[in-house]
Each structure stands twice: as C-alpha cells, then as structure tokens.
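INFO worker-7 received task bundle
INFO bundle size: 2
INFO processing item 0
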Amino acid sequence: MSPVFGLGVSDLWSWVLLLGLIYVMVKVYNLYLTWRELDKALRPFEGPKRHWLYGNAHEFLEERSDLDIMVRHAEQYPYSYPIWLGNFFAGLAVCHPEYAKAVLSRQDPKDAFSHYFITPWIGKGLLVLSGEKWFRHRRMLTPGFRYDVLTPYVTLMSDCVTIMLDKWERLIPDENPVELFHHVSLMTLDTIMKCAFSSHSSCQLDSESPYIKAVYELSRLVDHRFYFIPYHNDLIFHLSPHGYRFRKALKTAHEHTDKVIKERKQSLKNEMELEKIQKKRHLDFLDILLCAKDENGQGLCDEDLRAEVDTFMFEGHDTTASGISWTLYCLAKYPDYQEKCREEIRDVLGERTTVEWEDLSKLPFTTMCIKESMRLYPPVPEIARELKEPITFCDGRSLPKGINIFLSIYAINRCSSIWDDPEVFDPLRFSPENSFKRNSHAFLPFSAGGRNCIGQNFAMNEMKVAVALTLQRFELRPDPKREPKIVSQLVLRSLNGIYINLKKL
C-alpha cells in the first residue's frame, strides 16, 4: 500500500492512536476541572456522604422513595445539602424557607436539563423562557388571568366536573373503588380545552380524539424519557420505538394547535379588540393571546402563540389533576374533615349543582383542606434553578454562578423544624391566624417571586369547584387494600393509582 503524505500505514495508525489519546486526555482533564469547580463551590455545605464513583445516586436506587430520601436529609441538614449524581453533575438541594426565599426572589432561569425533554412539545413558552423574552411574555399573558376573565370559567369547570361525577355514579353499582387520577386528569383536560380553545371536545366521554390521545401520549413519554437514563441521549431516543411514538404524537398535537390558532385568527380579523369580542361571548385564553400586544404594539408570532397554548395545556392539566386527586384522597381518609367541608358546601350551594364565582370565597374550611392536602402532597414536589449570578444565603454561605439549585417543596412541607407534627393532616394550619405566623416561603404550592405560577388562581378555582361538587354528591372512603405509593413524575402521582370508594348521597 502506498504511503499517505509520506507516512507508512503503521505510522498513520500511530498518529491516529496518538490523536485519540490526546482527545481522551483533554476530555478527562475537562471532567476533572468540572469536578474541581463543583467540589469547591459545594464544599461549604455539609451533606450526606457520597460514593467515590456514584456520588449520592446509589441512594435513589436502593430506597423506596426519592422523596423520602429528600425529607430524611432535610431533617439532618435543615437548610441545604449537596446532591451528587455521579462525580460530574451536582447541585444544592434547598429545604428551608429562608434559602427558598433567597432563590425565588431572583430571576434565575429554570434549569435547562429538567425541561429539555418537554421543550419539543411545549416550545419556548413561559415555563422555559428566561430574560427579557420571559418578561415580555409574562406581561402579555397576565391579562389572561384577571378575575373578569376567570369568572365565566367557573361555570365551565362546573360542567366538566358534573360530567365526571355522572360517570362515577354509573360506576357505583360495580362496588369497585374508583381510580381518581385517570378520571380527574380527563376532567382537567376537558376544562383546559374549553377554557383555552372554547373547544367542546367531549374527551371525558370519548378519549379516542387524536389530539386527546396525543396529549396523553406525550405526557407519558416525557415522564418515561426523564427517568430512563439511556433515553437522555437524543440519538438513542430518536431511534427507539418510544421516540417514534413521541414524534408521531408531537405532529398530531402541533397540527391541532396550529389549526385552532389559524381558524381563530381568521374569525377575529374584523374584531381584534377584546372589548368587542367580550360583548359577544366570554373570552378564552386563545383570545387573550391573539389580542395581546407589548409596549411597542407587537403581538406574539405563530411559534410563540403555539408555545404558550401548549404550555397552558401542559401546566394546567396534570398539575391540577394531581392537586384534586390527592385532596379527595385526604378527605376520604379523614371523614370528620370531609363532613365539615360538606356542611360548609351545603350552606353555600343549597340545592344548586353548579358553583358560581361568588361561591368560591365562601368556602374557607374547604380551602384550608385543599391547602393542607397540597402541603402533604404538593402537585409539583420540586423545582430547579440555574444560578446566573452568585448568591449569598441568610447564614452567609455563598454559591458561584452556574450551580444548579434543587428546591424541594416536598421536603420543606414535611420538615419538623418548620411544621409541628408534619405528617399529621391538620387543615387549621391554614387558618388566618396560623398562616400569619408562618414564614412566607414555608408553603410554596405555586412557587413564589416573579416566576410564580401565572395560573395559580385558575388552578385553585378548579380545585374548589371539583371538591365542592364531589362532596355534595358522594361520601368518600379510602381503599385500605391500595395505599398509594407516592412518586415524583413531573407531577406528584402514585405508582399504583389513587383509589377511593364512593357512596351516593
């Protein structure tokens, strides 16, 4: 064989091996620098002992619940502690209100890793945006959650809950427990469809709609990809059967959203003022988005419109379903509190089977029960931030920019240094007098600060409507044979479902 550039074959292979060795050495050196920077940054923070190779990752494989581990560590390290997943990915787990306040009072973006897998679906909307674009979108979307826009939604919520309860009534003769999350999730999806699109999808009665099936498929596949480590690699996921199903569902969901936006744009051509639209019908979320303008008179482009609609569908669907399901589970476990809620609801509603806007403020004890359920079972059990600037905490310890913060809402909610008897279900923790005494960042079901959940009033209204109408019609009892196994999968779920027994009143 002729030489290449004057080199023989053996010489060429020697150079290839040498270049390969240099490449490996550079990668190893860069990993070493990463480890050294993380180790230096997190050294001031005491934490659980880590394995020389796995870091703390092996703990999460050995124990029953990741959330239980976080609570256990929070008791031992009451402000924060480092979590190492291997030797080259680490962050600070925060489990104290004052530390949470320091983090959430800033405008640091949500960490890119947590939302990487969902961005292909929801695009770059409020959930994943940061910086000036986030501020612009937040200002433009805020009018969509004013009380005058939310008011007519309450009737739609009542209609959707009633459909779910009618289904449950037909299931009662079977004398089998009802699995809450599936039914409630369809109901919240139905509600979102009606409030976001004015779309009467009938998804609770017919879940065979291609769009509804696509939304469910995407939710499941995002969960699966996040927890199945090989799928973190784009190529492996793309070539897998799950990757094919994800792309197929994604195409269906985006085509549906694009079609709805295009049709609504056409219908609004001659009446692009909210006041004119509102005289004819109630506004939905899409109306607000299409008519929104920034200070320069610029609206959202088609890509941004779709991102915000898809984000609203994602955030307002499973998170609210989690909150409602766990609240009904708690009330089933504690019949005395359930009956007290029912008495309050009967006093407010009387014989009416539809909740009205004015009723929502007249259910203080029911609201306390919902909040206590969200303390024990927060729909979003943890949030993350990536520090764009250094931060100094209340005890003087600091972190440099670039470090990830994992804020464990679940651990804060169950920490004995913050709550008396934290495992006890006690709605009176949220009475006005007790709430006044508590640290402002001890209870964060919707986060806090500038990046708090823009739809928190929408979610709370829906939870009140669902609980009120359910207790008006049914007595709830737990299923002792199926105790839920709590797991964090984007939202708080149960591995074996959330089952309760129903008795028609």
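INFO item 0 finished
INFO processing item 1
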Amino acid sequence: MADDGEFDDDELDSEDSLTYSNGVIEKIVAIATREAAHVLGMKGNLMHFVQETLGAENLTKGVSVEVTDDNRVIVNISVIIEYGAYAPAIFEDVKERVTERLAAMTGLEVAGINLRIEDVMTREEYAASHKRAQEAAAE
C-alpha cells in the first residue's frame, strides 16, 4: 500500500476471489466416490440417518472436508463396499476419481484422502437394507 492511503495496482487486482463452500466440495467428492466400482453407498452420521428417515437424501453423506491454509483439501470419506471386493483397489479408484474431479471442477489440489470402510455387504443385502429404510421413511 502506498503511503498516501491508495492501493497500488497489484493490490487492486487482488480484490477478485473465487471460493467454494465445503458443501460444494463435499458434493463433488461424494458423487465421484459413488462412481467408483464396488462402492455400494456412503455411511453418514446420526443426522444423516434422521434426514433419510424423513425422506431427504443427503448427497454429502459420508464426506467431510478440511481446507488447509495453503488452499489444499483434506478429504475424509466413509463408505460401504461390496463383499468380496479388494479394498486397496477401491481406495486407489476413489482417490484417483476424487483428485481428478476436484482439480477439473475447482482447481483445488488434494492434500490427502482418508477412506474409511464402514461396512461390507453383498449387493443384495445393501439393496434390501436400502429398501427397508425407504419403507420405514414412508410410514
């Protein structure tokens, strides 16, 4: 800043900004994760369960993000995977998809991805449990 209280040209140019809410980043991560082979679903917390019971689908369920001071993203994901699938391969697939989608859509760099396997089910078990949850919500 100049001594006379005016901004120099470099500072004037820096007034523009582009930011993303955590919800936007979480949604991109959740959609990319669901695209990975053998990921049956996302595992949320009690609040997500209540929302789903009331009929609301929460697309960011099972995802939390933290933006670091240097504008990189740490991603935490909780999933349900298909029984018999190789978890390390699922992790690599999720990591690749999430990193690519975030870079392509936001320009943000991923500092780290933490994938937590919350449950293992067959596709039939998952479909049956999902159907029961929908029926319970309809009552």
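INFO item 1 finished
INFO post-check item 1: The chain has five helices and four strands.
INFO post-check item 1: The mean pLDDT is 83.
INFO worker-7 idle
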